Amino acid sequence: MLISVHMPKTAGSSFQATLAAHYGDALKLRYEDKPLHRSAWSRNFDASVSSLRNRGAKSSDGELSCIHGHFLPLNYRFAKPQTNMRFVTWLRDPVQRLVSHYHYWKRSYQPGQSGPLHQRMIEEDWTLEEFVRCKELRNIYSIFLWGFPLERFAFIGITEHFTSELEDFGRLILQATAVQKELNRNPDLDIERDDSDYVVSEPLRSAIETVHAKDIALYKRAIAMRTQRLKEAR
């Protein structure tokens, strides 16, 4: 069983298409949790209860299966047998991820369908600076990884190196070629190009790095883990 945690704005939609190409009908999508539109108490409590409920659950042994979406991996942390359950996710430079998230929400709002926090942002016409400092959106990686150690992931892809990382994912996790699919990409940016980053002023970057310090630290750890992975593959 592969548990794939889709962090917002980390090429998770493209990765979903890759998983669909590999797993077909055995892929299950889980997007109903909506962690960012719930209180910390609510999402953490439900994930904790689910984790206990799944303690005796068993992953399927006979066929390929995968769960992918926006949810806390804590839900499945204690499911058994753990040796047959692997967790994967993707992380992106928190500064770029946050700016991308802001612009995505600005252009994708759907009245009556988007979550309450998204609605609040649009109705109040937040600036990027206001979005950056929104309490509910601080340290999104840390929100998703509550109660779940980074080292528990069998693979953490780095979005800035999507193509080469996808090759590694196929080799290490799927043990097959991972088909690259591109969906939901901002047409003005190409994450595979070195010059594709959003332009961020130094004062804003400094503010983001301060307000989102936990995510900056997590990203640096993920980079170090990738460096070690590449070193071991030589």
TrEMBL record:
<protein>
    <recommendedName>
        <fullName>Sulfotransferase family protein</fullName>
    </recommendedName>
</protein>
<dbReference type="InterPro" id="IPR027417">
    <property type="entry name" value="P-loop_NTPase"/>
</dbReference>
